[in-house]
From TrEMBL:
Job description of the protein: Regulates leading edge dynamics and cell motility in fibroblasts. May be involved in cytokinesis and signal transduction.
Protein's name according to its UniProt entry: Coronin
UniProt source species: Anabas testudineus
Taxonomic path: Eukaryota, Metazoa, Chordata, Craniata, Vertebrata
Matches recorded under Gene3D superfamilies: YVTN repeat-like/Quinoprotein amine dehydrogenase (2.130.10.10)
Keywords from the named record: Actin-binding, Coiled coil, Cytoplasm, Cytoskeleton, Membrane, Phosphoprotein, Repeat, Transmembrane, Transmembrane helix, WD repeat
Cellular component terms (Gene Ontology): stress fiber
Length: 509
């Protein structure tokens, strides 16, 4: 402050003195430094966020993390479990570990192992902490129900198998607000949106991407998608109208993979490579992508930058595959829009990364993000906190966040309805409630029968067992199949009788 005073005294003396040219240039300098100063001291409560890896005994150890060449995160986390794609001989498998199951993981620990080729991507259902989806090189998507307390034996029977892709399935992603709506993207360059409750492929986006789809992201209320494709285009898609509503060619000019995610305000954040192979980030308006809102160059490493986003604080965390750091940025509507906050660095490179939803964080420790970093043979939680002295709930750090309840049912969404996430307060910490079991009722099997009968059958099913097991489901399916074949026979006989009656009538005439 005193420095500033003496400096302005000096300025005054210059102005009243006889050096007008010097005065002019000093004025310019002053304006410049005021602007710089404002930028440097930009107020942010996240300026001092710091990351810390947990102690060694809090890690998950002796895990053979997958080596498959595909740039997904290999790890998915929710408030109950951490799931990790692992090396498995002759098939595809992943671990589902209760969060508290830290330490050495025994070789015989049960896995989820129904795929016949490596698993490429996994995603926890945001509306049920016991349901996880997986996409695999075997061209299928599977949806699994994990027992409340974790697996005691290996799980090879999914609740449902979703078949429709003709090549490996590299991306699975649940709809953020509609129950039982799941998206998958395959190396057949198709996106399929499934109603998991009926096992049906409802929407097939097949002619939009001429090459491999690197990433797909739902908008905040799930009305739109944005994709990054190997053809260097970023597309904004209305999936229910099967229409591309905006696109940008060469969003990043380099040939290496891009990523694109929707932000809460509808803007799109991308990462990619420049023509000179420098890593870049950029921000775009989703309705007009002609020019970026901003582009920033980062460095010249070559790992794909996986973005993880917190819509409540508008912070983006960038984890480069193969990097040993997490860089984070706050996004605001003030230039330069994407503000670098800090870097968390370690020595070991990351093979993959899991990202805990907000409701899984410890608000009493001012934890604002938690990562699950995959090393070659272990998974190490990294905790990001805002340093605060108070023990009180910091409501400015924790605006209400997306809770586990869906805003819509699958049918409503497929019929055109939208809904934003149902928010909850984290004030008293998040307490998980009992999850209901996922029921798959194959309506496509019932299609040919009157709806009322179908209703009655499902009532019977409910009476027999409130939580139908996979076996029950199978039995039901078998009965239905038999029913259908009997019905078809009756129809055929009907037609035959009608034909015979006609002939008899003709003969009688
Ligand atoms: C959903 O989001 C879109 C834009 O992303 C917006 O136009 C629409 O109003 C939203 N609808 C609801 C119900 O939130
Ligand atoms: C359902 O079954 C009950 C008897 O179990 C019958 O009375 C009723 O009419 C059936 N409902 C429909 C809609 O078929």
């Amino acid at each position: 402050m005193t420095e500033g005073c003496s400096f302005s005294d000096f300025i005054t003396s210059v102005y009243v003195g006889k050096w007008p040219l010097l005065a002019l240039s000093l004025t310019a300098l002053l304006f410049l430094s005021a602007d710089m100063l404002r930028r440097v001291v930009r107020q942010s409560k996240f300026r001092h966020v710091f990351g810390q890896a947990v102690r060694n005994d809090q890690c998950y150890d002796d895990i053979r993390v997958s080596r498959v060449t595909w740039d997904s995160s290999f790890c998915a986390v929710n408030p109950k479990f951490v799931a990790i794609i692992i090396e498995a001989s002759g098939g595809g498998a992943f671990f589902v570990l209760p969060l508290q199951k830290t330490g050495r993981i025994d070789k015989a620990y049960p896995t989820v192992c129904g795929h016949t080729a490596p698993v490429l991507d996994i995603d926890w259902c945001p509306h049920n902490d016991l349901i996880i989806a997986s996409g695999s090189e075997d061209c299928t998507v599977m949806v699994w129900q994990i027992p409340e307390n974790g697996l005691e034996t290996s799980l090879s029977e999914p609740v449902v198998v979703l078949e429709g892709h003709s090549k490996r399935v590299g991306i699975v992603s649940w709809h953020p607000t509609a129950r039982n709506v799941l998206l998958s993207a395959g190396c057949d360059n198709q996106i399929i949106i499934w109603n998991v409750g009926t096992g049906e492929a409802m929407i097939n986006l097949e002619d939009m991407h001429p090459d491999v789809i690197f990433s797909v992201s739902w908008s905040r209320n799930g009305s739109l998608l944005c994709t990054a494709c190997k053809d260097k285009k970023v597309r904004v898609i209305d999936p229910r109208k099967k229409k591309i509503v905006a696109e940008k060619d060469k969003a990043h000019e380099g040939a290496r993979p891009m990523r694109a995610i929707f932000l809460a305000d509808g803007n799109i954040f991308t990462t990619g490579f420049s023509r000179m192979s420098e890593r870049q980030l950029a921000l775009w308006k989703s309705d007009n992508m002609d020019e970026p809102i901003c582009v920033q160059e980062m460095d010249s490493s070559n790992g794909v930058l996986l973005p993880f986003y917190d819509p409540d604080t508008n912070i983006v965390y960038l984890c480069g595959k193969g990097d040993s750091s997490i860089r984070y940025f706050e996004i605001t509507d003030e230039a330069p829009f994407v503000h670098y906050l800090n870097t968390f660095s370690t020595k070991e490179p990351q093979r993959g990364m899991g990202y805990m939803p907000k409701r899984g964080l410890d608000v009493n420790k001012c934890e604002i993000a938690r990562f699950y970093k995959l090393h070659e043979r272990k998974c190490e939680p990294i905790i990001m906190t805002v340093p605060r002295k108070s023990d009180l709930f910091q409501d400015d750090l924790y605006p209400d966040t997306a809770g586990p309840d869906p805003a819509l049912e699958a049918d409503e969404w497929f019929n055109g309805k939208n809904g934003g996430p149902i928010l909850i307060s984290l004030k008293d910490g998040y307490v998980s409630t009992k999850n209901r079991d996922l029921k798959v009722v194959k309506t496509n099997v019932l299609e040919t029968k009157p709806a009322t009968k179908a209703e009655n059958i499902s009532t019977v099913q409910k009476h027999v067992s409130p939580q139908p097991s996979v076996k029950m489901e199978d039995k039901l399916e078998e009965v239905l199949r038999e029913f259908k074949s009997l019905r078809d026979r009756v129809i055929l006989q009907d037609r035959r009788i009608a034909r015979l009656e006609e002939q008899v009538a003709k003969v009688a005439m």
